[in-house]
Amino acid sequence: MENYYYNKPNPWQMLAYLFLIQLFIAFTARSIAPLGLKIGEDLQLTMSQVGILPAALFLGQSIISMPAGILTDKAGSKKILLMIILGLSGSFFLLSFSSSFMLILFFIFLAGFGYGASHPATNQGVNDWFNSKRRGTAMGIKQMGVTAGSALSALLLLPAASQFGWRTAVFIPAISLLVIGIILYLAYKEPKSPASSLTRRKPVSLPKLLTHPGLLLVTLSAMLLTASQTILNTFIVIFAYDYLQISIMLAGVLLGIAEFGGALGRLTWGILSDRLFAGKRIIVLLLISLLVAVVSFITSLLPQNTPFHLMAVIVFIFGFGASGFNGVWMNATSEIAPQSYAGTATGASITLSSWGAILFPPVFGILIDWTGLYSIGWNFVTLLMVISILSLLFVKES
């Protein structure tokens, strides 16, 4: 009996593996944002074209997320994770040898398949190992891997791109994900009796699930928050370098600070939703939307002589909200649906919310190209958050 308990996988150990897998996936896929400046300089791209780079990633994500969610519900998370690791690392390996803008977009689009499938797969892993009382905290920890990976890409890959070129900087995470990802895949185990099975309810039909008013309204909010997150990650380096006249290295540090804020946000918002709000996710999403609205409006008022240390505080708070909402959102979508449809609900919500990253960063870039004013772009983000707040006010939470 002692040997049985010794060999039984520990949920928190499995969560650590999921966190690391998510980290290296994000380190690879989310490197597009900090490297956008260098890719743009090399290919002589406009601001709107730079905004299209992450849009291509999220377009791939939007297409694959729902099928990946359905497949995860049927096959389990572990099998999907291997496909993700191989597909994402392979796409970025090919990307590192590309020189055409359209070819680069194509490989980023393919990478979006792997990145998009990672969310329902790892979310299902959290649902399998943790019950509803611990799931918000566990999901927040797992989702910290996304922002931690993004922060690493900003802090490590932007200097590497400046020194060796952006293609070398893309090659580094591709190889890292392939090697370390396979090791983590082999270490990760799935539970024989998922924790989520203890709270399963009677399944509903898929059409009814996809037209659930609460799920649609939460997804609309997530789409707008995703837009704010992608705009921040894509343009904060360019804004700091071009408008604030901050050096390229310190501009990359600002993105790292924003992502570090997002990592802390994902954990903090998850804990708050579990302990302070007793599992009520919608009120937390409302608070996040309000915070992002306020800080984006403040950003629109910043003068060109804004000191670096003040900008660091602002982007930390910006990231705490804009990059910190994901864990609470994932919990909200998986808990609105019956647990047997958790992967499908998450995949459907990711599919629709991805359009926030597809549509709005190019719009932000177009506004800058047309007006030459970054303040217009940041006020545009504030407007998106007002719509997010209004949508959440109509969600009825049980």
Provide a compact summary of the structure.
By secondary structure, this protein is an all-alpha fold. Helix content is 83%, strand content 0%.
Q: What pattern of helices and strands is seen along the backbone?
A: HHHHHHHHHHHHHHHH
> What structural class do helix, strand and pairing data support?
mainly alpha
**Overall outline:** globular
Number of domains: 1
Helix count equals 16
What radius of gyration results from the CA coordinates?
20 Å
CATH architect. name: Up-down Bundle
Can you tell me the CATH topology? Growth Hormone, Chain: A
- How much of the sequence lies in strands comes to under 5%
CATH class: Mainly Alpha
Poorly predicted spans: 1-6, 197-204
In round numbers, the mean pLDDT is: 85
How does the major sheet shape up? none
- Tell me the quaternary state: single chain
Helical content, roughly?
over 70%
What is the distance, rounded to the nearest whole angstrom, between the alpha carbons of the first and last residues? 41 Å
* CATH homologous group name: MFS general substrate transporter like domains
Count of distinct strands: 0
Task: Explain the overall architecture.
By secondary structure, this protein is mainly α. It has a single domain, classed as Up-down Bundle (Growth Hormone, Chain: A). Helix content is 83%, strand content 0%. The protein has 16 helices and no strands. It has helices at 2-7, 11-29, 32-43, 47-75, 77-95, 101-129, 132-164, 166-187, 206-210, 213-243, 248-276, 281-300, 308-322, 326-336, 342-371, 374-392. The model is unreliable at 1-6 and 197-204 (pLDDT under 50).
